[in-house]
TrEMBL record:
Domain LysM: 115-162
One Pfam family this sequence matches: LysM3_NFP
Protein name as annotated: Tetratricopeptide repeat (TPR)-like superfamily protein
Superkingdom of origin organism: Eukaryota
Cleavable signal peptide: 1-25
Keywords: Signal
Source species of the chain: Hibiscus syriacus (Rose of Sharon)
Length: 324
Protein backbone atom coordinates (compact mmCIF):
# COMPACT_ATOMS: atom_id res chain seq x y z
CA UNK A 1 0.00 0.00 0.00
CA UNK A 2 2.67 2.36 1.11
CA UNK A 3 4.68 1.52 -1.92
CA UNK A 4 1.81 2.33 -4.20
CA UNK A 5 1.26 5.64 -2.39
CA UNK A 6 4.86 6.62 -2.90
CA UNK A 7 4.86 5.63 -6.45
CA UNK A 8 1.76 7.74 -6.99
CA UNK A 9 3.45 10.67 -5.31
CA UNK A 10 6.49 10.13 -7.47
CA UNK A 11 4.42 10.21 -10.58
CA UNK A 12 2.83 13.53 -9.74
CA UNK A 13 6.24 14.82 -8.82
CA UNK A 14 7.46 13.74 -12.20
CA UNK A 15 4.50 15.47 -13.77
CA UNK A 16 5.34 18.59 -11.83
CA UNK A 17 8.91 18.41 -13.05
CA UNK A 18 7.69 17.83 -16.52
CA UNK A 19 5.45 20.88 -16.35
CA UNK A 20 8.18 22.99 -14.81
CA UNK A 21 10.57 21.81 -17.42
CA UNK A 22 8.08 22.56 -20.13
CA UNK A 23 7.36 26.05 -18.81
CA UNK A 24 11.06 26.76 -18.50
CA UNK A 25 11.79 25.51 -21.98
CA UNK A 26 9.03 27.58 -23.53
CA UNK A 27 10.18 30.59 -21.53
CA UNK A 28 13.65 30.17 -22.95
CA UNK A 29 12.27 29.67 -26.41
CA UNK A 30 10.00 32.70 -26.07
CA UNK A 31 13.06 34.88 -25.60
CA UNK A 32 14.45 36.17 -28.88
CA UNK A 33 16.81 33.66 -30.40
CA UNK A 34 19.62 36.20 -30.07
CA UNK A 35 21.32 37.38 -26.90
CA UNK A 36 21.47 40.87 -25.62
CA UNK A 37 24.94 41.59 -26.83
CA UNK A 38 28.02 41.92 -24.68
CA UNK A 39 27.74 42.33 -20.93
CA UNK A 40 28.44 45.98 -20.05
CA UNK A 41 27.91 45.56 -16.34
CA UNK A 42 30.51 47.13 -14.06
CA UNK A 43 31.06 48.30 -10.49
CA UNK A 44 31.28 52.02 -9.76
CA UNK A 45 34.66 51.17 -8.26
CA UNK A 46 35.91 49.62 -11.54
CA UNK A 47 38.88 51.60 -12.82
CA UNK A 48 38.46 53.34 -16.19
CA UNK A 49 40.51 52.05 -19.11
CA UNK A 50 41.83 53.37 -22.40
CA UNK A 51 40.35 51.57 -25.33
CA UNK A 52 39.11 52.13 -28.90
CA UNK A 53 35.92 52.72 -30.83
CA UNK A 54 35.95 51.70 -34.49
CA UNK A 55 34.78 54.73 -36.47
CA UNK A 56 34.09 54.93 -40.19
CA UNK A 57 35.38 58.09 -41.84
CA UNK A 58 32.37 59.74 -43.47
CA UNK A 59 31.16 62.68 -45.53
CA UNK A 60 30.98 65.57 -45.04
CA UNK A 61 32.90 66.63 -41.97
CA UNK A 62 34.45 63.39 -40.87
CA UNK A 63 36.90 62.66 -43.65
CA UNK A 64 39.25 64.94 -41.80
CA UNK A 65 41.32 63.50 -38.97
CA UNK A 66 41.25 66.83 -37.17
CA UNK A 67 37.45 66.91 -37.10
CA UNK A 68 37.26 63.31 -35.90
CA UNK A 69 39.76 64.10 -33.14
CA UNK A 70 37.67 67.12 -32.13
CA UNK A 71 34.48 65.08 -32.13
CA UNK A 72 35.95 62.43 -29.82
CA UNK A 73 37.82 65.07 -27.79
CA UNK A 74 41.08 63.29 -28.35
CA UNK A 75 44.29 64.67 -29.80
CA UNK A 76 45.19 64.61 -33.45
CA UNK A 77 48.49 62.91 -32.63
CA UNK A 78 46.83 60.15 -30.64
CA UNK A 79 44.30 59.35 -33.33
CA UNK A 80 46.95 59.38 -36.07
CA UNK A 81 49.21 57.15 -34.01
CA UNK A 82 46.42 54.66 -33.25
CA UNK A 83 45.69 54.42 -36.97
CA UNK A 84 49.33 54.11 -37.98
CA UNK A 85 48.97 57.20 -40.13
CA UNK A 86 52.27 58.88 -40.74
CA UNK A 87 50.80 62.24 -41.57
CA UNK A 88 48.12 64.00 -39.60
CA UNK A 89 46.96 65.68 -42.80
CA UNK A 90 45.98 62.40 -44.40
CA UNK A 91 42.72 62.80 -46.24
CA UNK A 92 40.56 59.83 -45.31
CA UNK A 93 38.30 57.86 -47.60
CA UNK A 94 34.60 57.40 -46.94
CA UNK A 95 34.20 54.13 -45.07
CA UNK A 96 37.82 53.98 -43.93
CA UNK A 97 37.82 52.39 -40.49
CA UNK A 98 39.76 54.12 -37.73
CA UNK A 99 40.47 52.94 -34.21
CA UNK A 100 39.62 56.05 -32.18
CA UNK A 101 41.09 56.19 -28.65
CA UNK A 102 38.41 56.58 -25.97
CA UNK A 103 38.36 56.39 -22.19
CA UNK A 104 35.88 53.87 -20.92
CA UNK A 105 34.45 54.22 -17.42
CA UNK A 106 31.63 53.00 -15.24
CA UNK A 107 28.45 55.06 -14.92
CA UNK A 108 25.37 53.60 -13.22
CA UNK A 109 26.89 50.10 -13.35
CA UNK A 110 27.26 50.29 -17.14
CA UNK A 111 30.48 50.84 -19.06
CA UNK A 112 30.38 53.99 -21.19
CA UNK A 113 32.85 56.39 -22.77
CA UNK A 114 31.54 59.91 -22.13
CA UNK A 115 31.90 62.16 -25.14
CA UNK A 116 30.78 65.76 -24.76
CA UNK A 117 29.14 67.18 -27.85
CA UNK A 118 28.06 70.76 -28.58
CA UNK A 119 24.53 70.88 -29.93
CA UNK A 120 24.06 72.50 -33.32
CA UNK A 121 20.87 73.80 -34.89
CA UNK A 122 18.45 70.96 -35.68
CA UNK A 123 20.31 68.26 -33.72
CA UNK A 124 18.37 65.59 -31.85
CA UNK A 125 19.75 62.81 -29.65
CA UNK A 126 18.55 60.32 -32.23
CA UNK A 127 20.15 61.91 -35.28
CA UNK A 128 23.47 62.58 -33.55
CA UNK A 129 23.61 59.04 -32.12
CA UNK A 130 22.88 57.38 -35.43
CA UNK A 131 24.71 59.68 -37.85
CA UNK A 132 27.60 61.54 -36.23
CA UNK A 133 28.32 58.77 -33.70
CA UNK A 134 27.33 55.97 -36.14
CA UNK A 135 25.21 54.17 -33.48
CA UNK A 136 28.13 53.74 -31.09
CA UNK A 137 25.50 55.02 -28.64
CA UNK A 138 21.70 55.22 -28.67
CA UNK A 139 19.27 57.99 -27.80
CA UNK A 140 17.85 56.31 -24.68
CA UNK A 141 21.34 56.04 -23.22
CA UNK A 142 21.88 59.74 -24.06
CA UNK A 143 18.63 60.66 -22.28
CA UNK A 144 19.64 58.71 -19.20
CA UNK A 145 23.09 60.27 -19.13
CA UNK A 146 21.70 63.83 -19.33
CA UNK A 147 18.79 63.82 -16.87
CA UNK A 148 18.75 67.60 -16.54
CA UNK A 149 18.38 68.35 -20.23
CA UNK A 150 15.11 68.49 -22.10
CA UNK A 151 15.65 66.36 -25.25
CA UNK A 152 12.83 68.12 -27.12
CA UNK A 153 14.16 71.53 -26.29
CA UNK A 154 17.87 71.53 -27.04
CA UNK A 155 19.69 74.78 -27.52
CA UNK A 156 22.53 75.51 -29.89
CA UNK A 157 25.83 75.31 -28.04
CA UNK A 158 24.39 73.23 -25.21
CA UNK A 159 26.80 70.51 -24.04
CA UNK A 160 25.40 67.00 -24.10
CA UNK A 161 27.22 63.87 -22.95
CA UNK A 162 26.96 61.11 -25.55
CA UNK A 163 27.80 57.84 -23.78
CA UNK A 164 29.46 55.43 -26.23
CA UNK A 165 29.20 51.73 -25.54
CA UNK A 166 32.53 50.33 -24.46
CA UNK A 167 33.98 47.80 -22.09
CA UNK A 168 37.09 47.23 -19.97
CA UNK A 169 38.48 43.72 -19.55
CA UNK A 170 37.80 42.21 -16.14
CA UNK A 171 40.70 40.85 -14.11
CA UNK A 172 39.93 37.33 -15.34
CA UNK A 173 39.73 38.50 -18.95
CA UNK A 174 43.03 40.39 -18.68
CA UNK A 175 44.63 37.31 -17.22
CA UNK A 176 43.20 35.42 -20.13
CA UNK A 177 45.01 37.76 -22.49
CA UNK A 178 42.26 40.21 -23.47
CA UNK A 179 43.95 43.58 -23.76
CA UNK A 180 41.06 45.63 -25.19
CA UNK A 181 37.49 45.46 -26.28
CA UNK A 182 37.02 47.48 -29.46
CA UNK A 183 33.49 48.86 -29.91
CA UNK A 184 32.28 48.07 -33.40
CA UNK A 185 28.83 48.69 -34.87
CA UNK A 186 27.52 45.85 -36.98
CA UNK A 187 27.07 46.93 -40.63
CA UNK A 188 24.42 45.55 -43.01
CA UNK A 189 27.09 44.04 -45.29
CA UNK A 190 28.86 42.25 -42.41
CA UNK A 191 29.03 38.56 -41.64
CA UNK A 192 30.63 37.08 -38.56
CA UNK A 193 33.45 35.88 -40.80
CA UNK A 194 34.09 39.26 -42.35
CA UNK A 195 34.15 40.88 -38.90
CA UNK A 196 36.55 38.20 -37.70
CA UNK A 197 38.87 38.90 -40.65
CA UNK A 198 38.46 42.65 -40.26
CA UNK A 199 39.92 42.61 -36.74
CA UNK A 200 41.99 39.43 -36.94
CA UNK A 201 39.98 38.06 -34.00
CA UNK A 202 38.56 34.56 -34.07
CA UNK A 203 34.86 34.24 -34.88
CA UNK A 204 34.08 32.04 -31.83
CA UNK A 205 35.65 34.66 -29.53
CA UNK A 206 33.42 37.37 -31.04
CA UNK A 207 30.34 35.12 -30.88
CA UNK A 208 31.05 34.25 -27.24
CA UNK A 209 31.71 37.76 -26.06
CA UNK A 210 28.62 39.19 -27.75
CA UNK A 211 26.36 36.22 -27.06
CA UNK A 212 25.68 35.80 -30.74
CA UNK A 213 24.96 32.10 -30.45
CA UNK A 214 21.83 31.36 -32.38
CA UNK A 215 21.98 34.53 -34.40
CA UNK A 216 21.28 33.77 -37.99
CA UNK A 217 20.52 37.22 -39.21
CA UNK A 218 22.27 39.78 -37.04
CA UNK A 219 21.46 42.63 -39.36
CA UNK A 220 17.76 42.43 -38.49
CA UNK A 221 18.39 42.38 -34.76
CA UNK A 222 18.79 45.41 -32.56
CA UNK A 223 21.98 44.88 -30.62
CA UNK A 224 24.40 47.25 -28.98
CA UNK A 225 27.77 47.64 -30.68
CA UNK A 226 29.85 44.48 -30.74
CA UNK A 227 32.72 44.25 -28.29
CA UNK A 228 35.67 42.78 -30.18
CA UNK A 229 38.07 41.09 -27.75
CA UNK A 230 41.64 41.87 -28.77
CA UNK A 231 44.65 40.21 -27.26
CA UNK A 232 47.33 41.70 -29.47
CA UNK A 233 46.93 45.25 -30.70
CA UNK A 234 49.56 44.85 -33.40
CA UNK A 235 47.46 42.07 -34.97
CA UNK A 236 44.59 44.51 -35.23
CA UNK A 237 46.51 47.36 -36.80
CA UNK A 238 47.84 44.96 -39.41
CA UNK A 239 44.39 43.46 -40.00
CA UNK A 240 42.17 43.96 -43.04
CA UNK A 241 39.86 46.42 -41.36
CA UNK A 242 42.42 49.02 -40.39
CA UNK A 243 44.80 48.78 -43.31
CA UNK A 244 44.84 52.22 -44.94
CA UNK A 245 43.02 52.13 -48.24
CA UNK A 246 42.97 53.92 -51.52
CA UNK A 247 39.76 53.50 -53.46
CA UNK A 248 40.21 50.82 -56.06
CA UNK A 249 41.75 52.20 -59.19
CA UNK A 250 40.43 55.65 -58.46
CA UNK A 251 43.11 57.85 -57.07
CA UNK A 252 41.21 60.75 -55.68
CA UNK A 253 42.41 64.13 -56.74
CA UNK A 254 43.89 65.98 -53.82
CA UNK A 255 45.52 62.96 -52.25
CA UNK A 256 47.62 64.65 -49.64
CA UNK A 257 50.03 63.36 -47.09
CA UNK A 258 50.62 59.65 -47.01
CA UNK A 259 48.12 56.88 -46.81
CA UNK A 260 49.60 54.57 -44.31
CA UNK A 261 53.33 54.31 -43.93
CA UNK A 262 55.38 55.45 -46.89
CA UNK A 263 57.47 52.74 -48.45
CA UNK A 264 60.89 53.76 -49.63
CA UNK A 265 62.25 52.72 -52.99
CA UNK A 266 65.51 53.52 -54.65
CA UNK A 267 65.20 56.53 -56.92
CA UNK A 268 66.07 54.59 -60.09
CA UNK A 269 63.28 52.05 -59.41
CA UNK A 270 60.80 54.88 -59.07
CA UNK A 271 62.10 56.73 -62.12
CA UNK A 272 61.74 53.56 -64.22
CA UNK A 273 58.25 52.85 -62.87
CA UNK A 274 57.05 56.36 -63.65
CA UNK A 275 58.96 56.68 -66.92
CA UNK A 276 61.08 59.47 -65.41
CA UNK A 277 58.02 61.12 -63.84
CA UNK A 278 56.35 61.20 -67.22
CA UNK A 279 53.38 63.51 -67.63
CA UNK A 280 51.23 60.53 -68.69
CA UNK A 281 51.87 58.95 -65.34
CA UNK A 282 50.88 62.01 -63.42
CA UNK A 283 47.58 61.71 -61.51
CA UNK A 284 47.43 65.10 -59.90
CA UNK A 285 49.93 67.62 -58.59
CA UNK A 286 53.07 65.75 -57.66
CA UNK A 287 51.34 62.37 -57.43
CA UNK A 288 52.27 59.77 -60.05
CA UNK A 289 50.93 56.35 -60.86
CA UNK A 290 53.45 53.51 -60.96
CA UNK A 291 53.53 49.75 -61.00
CA UNK A 292 56.30 48.21 -58.94
CA UNK A 293 56.52 44.45 -58.38
CA UNK A 294 53.04 44.09 -59.85
CA UNK A 295 51.51 46.49 -57.35
CA UNK A 296 49.75 49.68 -58.36
CA UNK A 297 51.23 52.51 -56.35
CA UNK A 298 50.73 56.21 -55.94
CA UNK A 299 54.05 57.98 -55.85
CA UNK A 300 54.30 61.38 -54.32
CA UNK A 301 57.24 63.59 -54.95
CA UNK A 302 58.12 65.44 -51.78
CA UNK A 303 59.82 68.76 -51.45
CA UNK A 304 61.58 67.91 -48.23
CA UNK A 305 63.98 65.10 -47.83
CA UNK A 306 61.53 62.68 -46.27
CA UNK A 307 64.34 60.18 -45.79
CA UNK A 308 65.89 62.52 -43.29
CA UNK A 309 62.54 62.98 -41.61
CA UNK A 310 62.15 59.27 -41.31
CA UNK A 311 65.76 58.83 -40.27
CA UNK A 312 66.50 56.58 -43.20
CA UNK A 313 69.54 57.34 -45.25
CA UNK A 314 70.73 56.43 -48.67
CA UNK A 315 67.24 56.10 -50.16
CA UNK A 316 65.36 58.29 -52.56
CA UNK A 317 63.47 61.40 -51.55
CA UNK A 318 60.26 60.05 -52.96
CA UNK A 319 57.60 58.53 -50.80
CA UNK A 320 55.18 55.91 -51.93
CA UNK A 321 51.67 55.21 -50.78
CA UNK A 322 50.44 51.75 -51.41
CA UNK A 323 47.25 50.90 -53.24
CA UNK A 324 46.20 47.51 -51.87
C1 LIG B 1 29.75 60.43 -17.59
O1 LIG B 1 28.91 61.56 -17.60
C2 LIG B 1 27.87 61.54 -16.65
C3 LIG B 1 27.00 62.75 -16.91
O2 LIG B 1 27.74 63.92 -16.96
C4 LIG B 1 28.48 61.51 -15.24
O3 LIG B 1 27.45 61.46 -14.29
C5 LIG B 1 29.38 60.29 -15.13
O4 LIG B 1 30.02 60.27 -13.88
C6 LIG B 1 30.41 60.27 -16.23
N1 LIG B 1 31.11 58.99 -16.18
C7 LIG B 1 32.41 58.88 -16.16
C8 LIG B 1 32.98 57.51 -16.08
O5 LIG B 1 33.16 59.85 -16.21
C1 LIG C 1 19.94 51.74 -25.72
O1 LIG C 1 20.86 51.12 -24.86
C2 LIG C 1 20.34 50.74 -23.59
C3 LIG C 1 21.49 50.26 -22.73
O2 LIG C 1 22.03 49.05 -23.22
C4 LIG C 1 19.27 49.68 -23.81
O3 LIG C 1 18.72 49.31 -22.57
C5 LIG C 1 18.19 50.26 -24.70
O4 LIG C 1 17.23 49.26 -25.00
C6 LIG C 1 18.77 50.81 -25.99
N1 LIG C 1 17.73 51.53 -26.69
C7 LIG C 1 17.49 51.39 -27.98
C8 LIG C 1 16.43 52.25 -28.54
O5 LIG C 1 18.11 50.59 -28.68
C1 LIG D 1 39.75 31.99 -20.40
O1 LIG D 1 40.16 31.11 -21.42
C2 LIG D 1 39.70 29.78 -21.28
C3 LIG D 1 40.33 28.93 -22.34
O2 LIG D 1 40.50 29.62 -23.55
C4 LIG D 1 38.17 29.77 -21.35
O3 LIG D 1 37.69 28.45 -21.19
C5 LIG D 1 37.62 30.66 -20.25
O4 LIG D 1 36.21 30.75 -20.36
C6 LIG D 1 38.22 32.06 -20.35
N1 LIG D 1 37.78 32.83 -19.23
C7 LIG D 1 37.37 34.09 -19.34
C8 LIG D 1 37.00 34.75 -18.06
O5 LIG D 1 37.28 34.65 -20.42
C1 LIG E 1 45.47 36.77 -37.85
O1 LIG E 1 46.53 37.09 -38.76
C2 LIG E 1 47.47 36.04 -38.94
C3 LIG E 1 48.58 36.56 -39.82
O2 LIG E 1 48.09 37.21 -40.96
C4 LIG E 1 46.76 34.83 -39.53
O3 LIG E 1 47.67 33.77 -39.70
C5 LIG E 1 45.64 34.40 -38.59
O4 LIG E 1 44.93 33.33 -39.16
C6 LIG E 1 44.70 35.57 -38.34
N1 LIG E 1 43.72 35.16 -37.34
C7 LIG E 1 42.41 35.37 -37.48
C8 LIG E 1 41.57 34.90 -36.38
O5 LIG E 1 41.94 35.93 -38.44
Amino acid sequence: MAISFFSHQWQSLQALFFILDYVLASYIRARPSYGDGADFWCLESSAPCSTYAAYFAQELDFLDLRNIANLFRTSLQEIARASNLVSEDTRLFPGQLLPVPITCGCTMNHYFANITYDIKLGDTYYTISTTVFESLTNFTAVEQMNPFLEPKNLHTGEEVVFPLFCKCPSKAESENGTEYFISYVWQPKDSIWSVSAMFNVSAPAIIDENKLNGYTDISSAVIPPLMIPVSDWSDVTRSEGFRPKIMQDKLLPGVSGYLGKPIMYDADVIMRATMNLNEHRRVVGSVYRATIDGKLLAIKKTKEDIAKELKISGRSSLSVAENP
